[in-house]
Write a structure and sequence with these properties.
Elements lengths: L2 E7 L9 E2 H4 L8 H9 L9 E5 L12 E6 L1 H11 L4 H16 L1 H11 L3 H8 L3 H7 L2
Antiparallel strand pairs: 1-3, 1-4, 2-3
């Protein structure tokens, strides 16, 4: 454990910075009493989008008023943190948006097929995150 990173709490109304701790995957340091105590002292869980991580060399980008904690990382963990913090290209984001559009384009047809297959409306809402009222309108 040689590489270092910083956990920090992103202040309210601040643009996203770094990567969410939960998005990086399991980190050995996240299981330590120091990190557990730090999270508990600030009243947040490790799965909160407010808990961010940045490589040590990017410390200058952490807002001055943000609570921070240096943490050790293995080489493999440091690589994952760097990848999670790397900016996404516009092309990648546009591709992701197109995939989203294609996924939700025919949501009504998907819901009809699920209802016909015997999946209950509440279960469809639970699995898809769709508003139960929208699903209810399709069952009429």
């Amino acid at each position: 454990m040689a590489d270092e990173a910083y956990l920090f709490l992103l202040p309210d109304r601040h643009p996203w910075l770094g990567a969410a701790l939960a998005a990086v995957g399991e980190l050995e340091c996240a299981q330590t009493p120091a990190v557990h105590g730090w999270l508990q002292a600030h009243g947040v869980s490790g799965s909160s989008e407010q808990v961010r991580i940045l490589p040590a060399e990017a410390e200058a980008f952490i807002p001055q008023d943000a609570e921070r904690l240096p943490v050790p990382l293995s080489e493999e963990e440091a690589l994952r943190v760097h990848q999670a913090c790397a900016p996404r290209s516009v092309t990648d984001m546009e591709s992701e948006l197109l995939e989203f559009r294609d996924t939700v384009h025919d949501w009504e047809g998907l819901v009809h097929r699920a209802l016909t297959a015997g999946v209950s409306a509440p279960r469809i809402a639970q699995l898809t995150g769709l508003d139960p009222q929208d699903i209810g309108r399709l069952t009429v």
